[in-house]
Amino acid sequence: MADLNLIQGDITQFKGDAIVNAANTGLVGGGGVDGAIHRAAGPELDIACRKLHGCPTGEAKVTPGFNLPVKIIIHTAGPIWRDGSFEEPKLLRNCYENSLKRAVENHCQTVAFPSISTGIYGYPLDKACKIGVSTIRNFEAALQVTMVAFDEGTYRAFEKAMLA
Ligand code: ADP
Known about the structure:
This protein is α/β, with parallel strands linked by helices. It has a single domain (2-163), classed as Leucine Aminopeptidase, subunit E, domain 1. The chain is built from 5 helices and 6 strands. It has helices at residues 32-41, 44-50, 88-105, 125-137, 152-163, and strands at 3-8, 18-23, 60-64, 72-77, 110-113, 144-149. A hairpin with a 7-residue loop joins strand 3 and strand 4 (72-77). The chain is globular, with a radius of gyration of 14 Å. It binds adenosine-5'-diphosphate. Adenosine-5'-diphosphate binds at residues 10-12, 22, 32-34, 36, 78, 114-121, 148, 150-151, 154. Residues 10-12, 22, 32-34, 36, 78, 114-121, 148, 150-151, 154 line the site of adenosine-5'-diphosphate. This is Macro domain protein. InterPro entries: Macro_dom, Macro_dom-like. Residues 1-164 form the Macro domain.
């Protein structure tokens, strides 16, 4: 079982083996956490992402961390919320699970996640938190996972899901 803890802050400040980026399927710089990660990692990140030729929804791909204090960045494309009947829960679970697999394959012990899909992609926060927490906790690996909530509402929602 992976170990899970929660902090509020900016994921670009996380010092450890890996951070996860809530990217888009094109792996071309977007807004939100993706924009913040690209700004902090530097322009080499965009060049590396373009060489990956995109990332299907629910999958996860790896680049170096460049100027960030992590070895690797794991880019995953979250589902865009429509009404919940377009496999959004399964796709979000895949994002967490595939990101954790990439972390293990790359010999990471510490990895930080943002709240995937709950920003621009509109996934209802409480539903997304439950999926994130259960997928991380049920993942069989000796990993230390930190959820980095950017705002207080996200922090509270993850806290609730972790206590449930
Ligand atoms: P998505 O398109 O997957 O919804 P967003 O980047 O719009 O991705 O939002 C995902 C979450 O990341 C939101 O909770 C947003 O507030 C948060 N976020 C934005 N910037 C940062 C950051 N620097 N560190 C951590 N989380 C961030």
